[in-house]
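Internal ticket - ligand job 505, 2-acetamido-2-deoxy-beta-D-glucopyranose:
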Amino acid sequence: MAIIYILLASVVLPLLLYLYFTRHFNYWKKRNVPGPKPVPLFGNLMESALRKKNIGIVFKELYENFPNEKVVGIYRMTTPCLLIRDQDVIKNIMIKDFDVFVDRGVELSKSGLGANLFHADGDTWRVLRNRFTPLFTSGKLKNMLHLMIERANKYIEHVEMLCDHQPEQDIHTLVQKYTMATIAACAFGLDIDTTDPNKDQLKTSEEIDRLSLTANFAFELDMMYPGVLKKLNSTLFPGFVSRFFKDVVKTIIEQRNGKPTDWNDFMDLILALRQLGDIQATKRNSEDKEYSIELTDELIEAQAFVFYIAGYETSATTMTFMLYQLALNPDIQDKVIAEIDQGLKESKGEVTYEMLQNLTYFEKASNETLRMYSIVEPLQRNAKIDCKIPDTDIVIEKGTTVLFSPLGIHHDEKYYPNPSKFDPERFSPANISARHPCAHIPFGTGPRNCIGMRFAKIQSRVCMVKMFSKFRFELAKNTPRNLDIDPTRLLLGPKGGIPLKIVRR
Ligand code: HEM
Ligand SMILES: *[C@@H]1O[C@H](CO)[C@@H](O)[C@H](O)[C@H]1NC(C)=O
Ligand SMILES: *[C@@H]1O[C@H](CO)[C@@H](O)[C@H](O)[C@H]1NC(C)=O
Ligand SMILES: *[C@@H]1O[C@H](CO)[C@@H](O)[C@H](O)[C@H]1NC(C)=O
Ligand SMILES: *[C@@H]1O[C@H](CO)[C@@H](O)[C@H](O)[C@H]1NC(C)=O
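stdout (structure tokens):
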């Protein structure tokens, strides 16, 4: 009798599990789409699911391993998905056929923070995007500039103090202090002090960071069973985070009596939107049905949350990588500094919107930084209906998630010779126009690209201009010459920080 149980436990059960966790693995072979061999349960994502590699790096390698293919059939855990390599196909999906590929395909519960713009689907996304786009115009940004400059001035005092006492600093933790304070001011009008390690405000910001930006196994579960998070009524984000944003939003709405003030932060802009009543989707054609949603407190909390989370860490890591590359390339740093000095001289020492817009060499260097280290990886869209890829026999079936690897593209010799070299001249007008428009997509592309691109640009520039007007950044003894990317974070970021030496100019 016992022998039967042992046999059952050691042979039959593993066999059944094996069959179950490999049940879809013929999908791409049957359709003649090339791709790497999947591993039971993990598909092609074993290294990222076990947190050995950042998911962005895993996708970069998948991209690089099939240099001659337009598309690559992969498995995210057990689910078949398609990695798109070809630039024209990318353009088709992200721009031309956008109406088929509106959603990202990570469905969260519609209640709570799940209703945020990044994770919203279909008509809800359309309404939200339509109404929130005007919040990011250059006019609105100009009104916010003073909030950024105030935070930058305080932050620079802190850096000056550090520079005198302990000039070698982890630059990632350092610039986070600026972006956290800035986004808190621009999103909520909060004046938080992130430079004092004993203050609760810094601890709370760090806790929200940890809870929201650490890779979460719920994502792997959703890859195996698409839609499961919505069925489980899960928003992915822990109670601490949703309570925090609920409290902040509630307090601010009360303080402002539900009406916009003259702060000009995002909360003011959202309250002004709410005064207009229900928000509606613009009709794309006469057959489109009316669709409108009410801007409830819950919906406001979700947007406040996504602006906050998407707003500080993306800019912080981008500045970190840029400072690192400028320390490695002092001649390029000299040029960046010279341009900033010139700009400040022309604007009589004032940081103005026009002065920031005018930093063309800085822009090349920052585009080159985002080429080498694009931080939101991979990009994805989900097919609403079956869709044939032009010039191939491949049909993307309804419900299939397609993915893009900006990192893979940005390190492809075809578009960027000697890709590990930091060279801002790749973004000279002549070099840009010689490339496919989808060869540089750190902010995504098409109607669902990053809504905060302009904000990110101005927020980062205020900080960098202020820093470079006082300091230079040099390599320290412990600065890594080869960067490791943190496998446990959702965004691309340096593992264990990057120490640099801050030197007064
Ligand atoms: C260097 C800084 C940033 C980078 C590299 C970045 C990158 C991205 C990327 C790649 C996407 C996905 C685009 C796509 O799928 O095509 C995205 C979406 C988004 N980003 Fe950013 N981002 C940055 C800063 C910001 C800031 C400052 C904010 C807000 C204040 C923001 C808010 C958002 C939102 C709300 C979405 C979702 C848009 C939608 O689905 O309609 N981002 N971002
Ligand atoms: C989903 O969860 C929220 C709280 O997180 C709750 O208010 C709501 O009623 C739940 N919805 C369903 C359908 O269970
Ligand atoms: C922009 O830069 C150019 C060249 O450096 C300079 O001539 C011009 O005055 C600047 N404009 C502003 C508004 O700073
Ligand atoms: C184009 O980029 C290359 C580096 O890839 C650089 O050497 C060259 O000077 C650039 N060309 C122009 C016209 O700026
Ligand atoms: C830098 O990148 C942005 C966004 O991809 C693009 O709009 C801009 O034209 C680029 N500028 C330069 C100088 O490369």
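Auto-summary: The mean pLDDT is 92. The pocket of 2-acetamido-2-deoxy-beta-D-glucopyranose (ligand 2) is lined by residues 109, 111-112, 233 (CB under 6 Å).
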